[in-house]
Amino acid sequence: MTFRERSDHAQNHLARSILVLMEQKKSNLCVALDVPTWEEAVRILQEVGEYVVVVKTHFDTFPDWSPARGEQLKKLAALHSFIIVEDRKFGDIGNIIKSQIKAVFGWAQGATMHTICGEGSLEGVRMAVEEASDPSLARGVFLVSELSCAENLISAQYTKKTTELAIQYSSLVTGLVAQNPLLLKEPGFVQLTPGVSSKPGGDNLGQKYVTPRDAVLLKGGDLIVVGRAITQSPDPKDAARKMRNELWNAYAERVSDGVSSVQRHD
Asked: For the chain, how far is it from start to end, CA to CA, in angstroms?
């Protein structure tokens, strides 16, 4: 199924928005905005925004973060037609999650979270969405079901339960952060797959990388997270363009038995 076809199956508004936007922009690229200064973040977004569907942030890594930064980020998102997902990986009781998510939803449409605290944390998300300043906006959470770093402690049982919670709370859950296609029978969810670079390998802190093609065709990723291969490139715009093309072509190959978009070379 194409992303557009899958959007009709999405129960979460943000999942639907992402799937439609991927087809509109002919891109399945998410850039991880892991840079040391806000000025560098803005510069990179201005260069790569046209190629990106989602920008994944870590707002607490910016020492000068403020509500004004959030408003600036929202304006850049509107200008370049991308969606903001805060990769905070929240993991707490429902009452705390409610406050945390509600604050993030002031400037981001999505966030990542762990399910370590069970259903209560997702009930907190529900309340945050209901109490949001503009409840009509598409919002949702990605549940962390698998990680790309070596020796992480997530078990198969934890992954299975997280997948079950995603289905149970399908109106709130945009998708899963995953390294394997866990929801093939649930096409309305988006699989967010990190740990991708132009070459396989890793860093000295346990991160493992796979190629863009493998992320899409072997790991089942829909929306593929790329960070340093773009943000540390001498030419982030060209790196993003090439990565977008490689990822989209892999997606086109994946759906080639149905209606798919032509490959990109521009």
From this structure: 24
Query: pLDDT > 90: what percent of the chain?
Result: 83
Catalytic residue status for 87? yes
Q: Which amino acid is at 164?
A: E
| pTM exceeds 0.85, yes or no | yes
What are the sequence ranges of the domains in the chain?
3-254
Q: Which of 89, 161, 208, 237 is catalytic?
A: 89
The SS3 call for residue 244 is helix
Tell me the binding residues for substrate. Answer: 34, 56, 148, 207, 227-228
- Measured CA to CA, the distance from residue 110 to residue 116 in angstroms comes to 19
| Active-site residue identified among 8, 74, 75, 87 | 87
Render the burial of 70-104: b for 16+ CB within 10 Å, e for the rest: bebbeebbeebebbbbbbbebbbebeebbebbbbb
Q: Which CATH architecture has domain 3-254?
A: Alpha-Beta Barrel (3.20)
Mean pLDDT of 80-89: 98
Statement: residue 263 has pLDDT above 60:
no
Q: Strand pairing of 208-209 and 201-202?
A: antiparallel
